[in-house]
Amino acid sequence: MFVDLASAQKLGAPLTTGRYFTQTAQQLPEALEAAKGIAPELTMEDNSAQFAPVLQAITGVDRLLGILLLGLCVAGACVLTLVSTFWARGRIHEIGILLSLGKSKGNVLSQFAIEAGIFAGVAAVIAAVVGTLLSSRLGQAVFAQVGGEALSSLQPSTGAGDVVLALALGAVIVLIGVSVGVLPLAMPRPKQILAKLS
Question: Which domain does 27 fall in, by range?
Answer without folding.
Answer: 5-46
